[in-house]
Each structure stands twice: as structure tokens, then as C-alpha cells.
Amino acid sequence: MANRTYLIPHTSSDPGVNDLDRFAVLKAANYSLPVLWLALFKDRNRASRSLEVCDAEGQSFFEEFPTLHTSLSNALENWGQRRGVLEGFLPEELHTYLRRWDDTLSALATPFIQVELSELAMMMEPQEFEESLNLSLSALDTLDETALAEFFSQAAFEFRSRNAPIGYDEATVEFNLLGFDW
Fold first, then answer.
1. Distances (CA, A) of 148 to 4, 35, 74, 165
2. Tens of pLDDT along 41-54?
3. Per-domain boundaries in the chain
4. Which residue among 12, 33, 99, 121 is least packed, with the fewest CB closer than 10 Å?
């Protein structure tokens, strides 16, 4: 397991349908959840999917994992509501990534979009993961500083306060905002 998250242009309204093949994945990320992906989803876009896993003894069983899934039109609406807020927090030199993200989104043609989170969720205790996801999904709407800190931590950005510049690592900023092509 590579502990990746995947952004999937999805063909079904059912998040349990497995569209996770290497040709359907648009972007991927290692050990993180890129914040531009997060900006597409709100709490109401949470879903779950059942995946087969194995225990330490090699016994297979099914377990429910969270996923983010919505119609492309809803994702674009969410992005439209949040883009300006995000632009206000990001240093100007990172605004080019917002424009690249706009271009990526405008090229999508499937009716749904999903973020596959199961590998990332497996890295944390379920309650800890849920708390992190809850805060991250609400951050750009509530502007709560705890939620914003959690949201930006997904990109390994250092959020100090709404009035302080965000710190980031220039070497990894692209992957932490956009993910990488799959």
C-alpha cells in the first residue's frame, strides 16, 4: 500500500462503484490530501464505501471507509464559492496553481467526482481521521482558525493566523496543492 489519495472523475452517482483504475484516476497524492481537491467538497459530500481488507492473520473482511463524492456541477459550485477565500490566504506567488486548477476543472467531462481516501484513513485512528476531515471540510466556510490550520496542514502549509502569511515548502507546494498526474 502506498498510502495515496486519488482524485477520480467518476461515472456513477454511487461512490461504491469502483472507478479506481489507473486510467480513470486524474490526480494522486502521497500521504496527503491536496487542499485544492478539498475545496471541491463540503460535509454533505461525504460518503462511504466498503472495501475488502485483511487483518494481521491474513483473514479478509469488509470495512467501511470515508470518501468524498459529488456531482461535478456541485463540486464546481463549491469551488466557485471557496476559490476567492483560498486565494486570499495563499501568497500571490501561488495563485498560478489556482489558475492551473481552474484549467484542470474546466477539462473534466464526467458527471461525478470522487476523492478516494481509504489508504490515508488507514494511517490514522478512525476518530482522529474523522476529526481531521470534519475540520478540513468546514475550514473555508467557517474560517475558524483551528479548522483552517487543519485544512492547510493537509498541504503541509503552516497556518499561524488569518492575519499572518502562510508558510510552505517550495519543493513540495505543487504536490500539496494539486497532487500529481496519474
1. 22, 11, 22, 13
2. 999 999 887 777 77
3. 4-181
4. 99
